[in-house]
Design goal:
This protein is of the alpha+beta class. The chain has helices at residues 28-44, 60-64, 83-91, 100-107, 109-118, 132-142, 168-178, 221-225, 242-256, 292-298, 304-313; strands spanning 16-20, 48-52, 69-72, 126-129, 146-150, 160-162, 182-186, 190-198, 205-206, 210-213, 231-233, 262-270, 276-282. Its EC number is 6.3.2.4.
Length: 324
Amino acid sequence: MNAMVNTAPAAQALGKVAVLMGGRSAEREVSLMSGTGVLAALRSKGVDAHPFDPAERDLDELKREGFARCFIALHGRFGEDGTVQGALELLGIPYTGPGVMASSVAMDKLMTKRIWMAEGLSTPAWRQVHSVEETQAAFATLGSPMIVKPVREGSTIGLTKVTELAQCADAYELAARQDPLVMCEQFIAGDEVTCPVLGTGDEARALPVIRIVAPDGNYDYQNKYFTDDTQYLVPCGLPAGEEERIQALVLKAYLTLGCRGWARADVMIDATTRRPYLLEINTSPGMTGHSLVPMSARATGLSYEDLCLTLLASAALDNPAGKA
């Protein structure tokens, strides 16, 4: 694949920048790692960038202190779910990543699936559940293995792979502690891949697919962020034509939800049929040393620092006419 062209403007033209990191979600620790990396990258490019933790400071300080735009390095609720995006819209400060509606919908895995299904995009079968009994009934319908997870959480937090009926109670209770909305999902056995998208509208492009090979097939929170045992394969080594089909599917999933700026979709490929299934889309992906968007971008010739600058340059408002 040809190297992506970095079209970011000069650092001085971007003004005073806040890197939003930390926050109040269960992914605070990872967000701080992402934000620290982004902050260093932007400063290395001459950007007047400053850390800003919404868990410790009121967002209206952004306006009072003259910030011109925000790089959102928050993950999970109160950062990736449309709430911060809405506040920045009211403040009139452009921000990176999808807008209010797309961020809110993408954070809700059930709503995301409903939209994808309506558009004819493949995603594993699921059931929303409200009790242990409903989880057990879903297990009888969806079969083993089955995934039980919170609807509005990320980084596999609160997720359980259920292989027998006796596990349903603990799995439901673990998920429900993270979110009152809980879902059960058919498990797709096969290759696990992820694919980022950069850009907006007709300019949006899927980056190279990354194939993930985790220890014992368990790509959990620990193996995502804190070990070096997980393998990330770029080029992905999939059979001929599969990468292009996955990129096309992910790009359509991104545009269907109204995403802009950037996002990253997770996909499972059925080992028998080779059919790809969309799992979810992350609208504020990780930017840590183990993160996947920088890895995919690097395969196109775009460095971590230039990726951060390009994303910052794409900061926008849903309603630019309302900018103060």
